[in-house]
Amino acid sequence: MTATIDRPDRASYAKGVAMLLMAGVVWSMMGLGVRYIQEASSFQILFYRSLGIIPALILFITIQNRGRIDRALRQMGTPTILGSLALVFAFGGSIISLKETTVANAVFLLATAPFFAAILGRIILGERVRAATWITIFVGSFGVAIMVYDGLSAGKIVGNVAAIICAIAFSVFTIALRYEKGGDTMPAVLLGGFYAAVASGVAATVAGQPLMVPVGDALIAVALGVGSVGLGLILYTLGSRRVPAAESTLLSLTEVVLSPIWVWILFGETAGPLMLVGGGILLVALFGNALTGVWRERRLARQEREVTLEHRRPPADATHRGPVWPDPAGSRIAAAGAARYVGPQHPIAERGYRR
Question: What is each CA distance from 68 to 52, 63, 185, 194, 298, in whole angstroms?
Answer without folding.
Answer: 21, 8, 16, 19, 37
